[in-house]
Each structure stands twice: as structure tokens, then as C-alpha cells.
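The data are quoted verbatim here:
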Amino acid sequence: MKEAPNLSYVEEIAGNDHIFMKRFIKLFKEEFLWEVGMYLRYINEKEPRSAAEIVSKSKYKLSMLGLENAFDFANTHEENLQAGDLSMHSGFQRILKIVNEFLKGI
């Protein structure tokens, strides 16, 4: 079964507070877009260790969206980037695209 992003965790945190949820999602989107931009910048500049720092931040957002397999993938990618290995970049890009599309729809 393929993973799909969802807001279950965010809904659990927000409860019936719709204003909080709306603000949380807005901030989440802003941070995620910034992180994606920085990640791609560091990859393009051949700075894998800097990219690893961004992946470290982003992987927790993946978990908050219910993407546990993506979290595990990001964790391994982060370790590889720390070693200068960019081999998992295309797979991570696919995850980022899926999350980006999901966030556009909410």
C-alpha cells in the first residue's frame, strides 16, 4: 500500500480549534516551501552536508503528515548526504513533489 500525506496528526493536535489548525497549516506550508528551496539550492551548489541539515528538519514534517516510510527514507538520505552521497536525491525529490502537491490542495 502506497503512503499518502494526511492531516490526521494535525487534526489531533488542533482538536476543534479551527483557527489554530489554519495558522498551523499556513506556517507548515511556508516552512516546507522554504526548506525545499534551500535543499535544492544546496544540492545544486554541491553542498550535501548543508542539504543534510535541511533534510533533518524536513523529515519531521513528513512524519507529521503520516509519511512514516518517507521519514525513514529521508533519515537514510540525510545520513548519506552527511557522507557526501547524493544517490538518493531523485527519490527524495519525488517525496517532496508529493507533499508539495498535497499542500497545494489544502
Remarks:
- The radius of gyration is 14 Å.
